[in-house]
Amino acid sequence: MFFPRRLISDCGxxxxxxxxQFGLQQKGKSELRFYIFTDKLHEVVATLPHDWEYSxxxxxxxxxxxxxxxxxxxxxxxxxxxxxxx
Length: 86
Prior knowledge:
Elements: E1 11-17, E2 22-27, E3 31-37, E4 41-47, E5 59-63, E6 68-72, E7 75-80, E8 83-84
Antiparallel strand pairs: 1-2, 2-3, 3-4, 4-8, 5-6, 6-7
């Protein structure tokens, strides 16, 4: 569970492990981003729910070595791998 927070304009990290390992971040005012750096950067992005600001939410990010999943309040919101050229 994550505490109620206000929307921020740039980024807010929930958990990160180095800049080239993994992280779960709020991306701007409308998205939640889960990234993993293996040989390349992979990420999935989900749209924030309309009641995100100042409400309690459960967020979970799962990586099984093959695919990535992002859940908000127990509902799968993003799945797959997206390669990002860096």
